[in-house]
């Protein structure tokens, strides 16, 4: 699948797979804005996704070594958005990514157009209404 991508600054790095078979592509920081509430990294990239696709933004697994949390857990870049891809993190300490570092990963996925149908009853299932640990600890 080919997706149009625009470098907004010359130093922007196109997303890349780190290994064959990886689902996510790494994205790199070209800018950093630090406030007392968050750290925002810009990738210097804008995308033109097909209308039936979405880009999901995830933290890299190495984030577990840092005091950072992706502020919106999983970011969503909709097909109509043409602005810069940015990742915003909440910080709990001094350890932060720097310009040029891999800051996250992206996945592009198709999605169905959903139309909800209101119902007075739902079909019974084995799980039923159990949630929040209802399947047990082990």
What distinguishing features does this structure have?
about 140 residues; mainly beta; about 35% strand
Structure characterization notes:
The protein has 138 residues and is mainly beta. The chain has one domain (4-110): Deoxyuridine 5'-Triphosphate Nucleotidohydrolase, Chain A (Distorted Sandwich), CATH 2.70.40.10. 0% of the residues lie in helices and 34% in strands. It has strands at 4-7, 25-28, 31-34, 39-42, 45-48, 53-58, 68-70, 75-77, 86-91, 102-110. Strands 2-10-6-8 form a four-stranded antiparallel β-sheet, with no helix packed on it. β3 and β4 form a beta hairpin. It is globular. It starts with a strand and ends in a 28-residue tail after the last strand. The mean pLDDT is 91.
> What is the level 1 CATH name?
Mainly Beta
Residues in β-strands, percent: 25-35%
The CATH homology group name: Deoxyuridine triphosphatase (dUTPase)
Kindly report the oligomeric state of this protein: single chain
Spatial gap, N to C terminus: 41 Å
Strand order of the largest sheet: 2-10-6-8
What's the total count of β strands?
10
The main sheet comes to: 4 strands, antiparallel
Total domain count: 1
CATH topology: Deoxyuridine 5'-Triphosphate Nucleotidohydrolase, Chain A
pLDDT averaged over residues: 91
The ordered H/E elements are: EEEEEEEEEE
Structural class: mainly beta
The residue fraction in helices comes out at under 10%
The global form is globular
């Amino acid at each position: 699948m080919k997706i149009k991508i625009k470098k907004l600054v010359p130093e922007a790095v196109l997303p890349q797979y780190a290994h064959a078979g990886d689902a996510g592509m790494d994205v790199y920081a070209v800018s950093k804005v630090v406030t007392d509430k968050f750290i925002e990294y810009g990738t210097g990239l804008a995308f033109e996704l097909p209308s039936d696709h979405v880009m999901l933004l995830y933290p890299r697994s190495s984030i577990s070594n840092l005091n950072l949390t992706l502020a919106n857990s999983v970011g969503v870049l909709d097909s109509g958005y043409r602005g810069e891809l940015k990742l915003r993190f909440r910080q709990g300490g001094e350890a932060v990514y720097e310009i040029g570092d891999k800051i996250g990963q992206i996945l592009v996925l198709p999605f169905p157009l959903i139309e909800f149908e209101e119902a007075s009853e739902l079909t019974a299932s084995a799980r039923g209404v159990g949630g929040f640990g209802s399947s047990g600890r082990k």
